[in-house]
Amino acid sequence: MQKTSTPTTTKAWLCLLVVGFLVLLAACGSAPSTTGTATTPTAAPTATLTTNPTPTPTPTTATSSSGNSVSIMNFSFSPNSLTVKVGTKVTWTNHDSVTHTVTADQGAFNSPVSAGSSFSFTFTKAGTFAYHCMIHPSMTATIVVQ
Ligand SMILES: [Cu+2]
Description:
The chain is an alpha+beta fold. It is built from one helix and nine strands.
């Protein structure tokens, strides 16, 4: 019956109780949440979305021919003198627009090499193999087999 006669102190205490209760709740509620943040799941499912570009298989057209290949270019053999080990297959590639030949002076090998093509010879004996191009006698070079 005395609605408006409620002491303000009671209201204040109620407010304090409510606030304290909320603080306790917040404290209790925040405690597990802090530990829960440690296990934040990283966004891993996006890994399947990575569009990996076509795995380029690195075309090995040269086949690591740095030490056993001779380029025929500008009417000359390059390198002019190549040293290889016994059993090495040497490949000559004609980069010119005309046909050359790879002709051993002693006849160990002899083959025409048309423009853009290549010729391979495996050296099974040690020695110095001078060779030339029959079409262009000024083209001479040497393979040293050790
Ligand atoms: Cu030639």
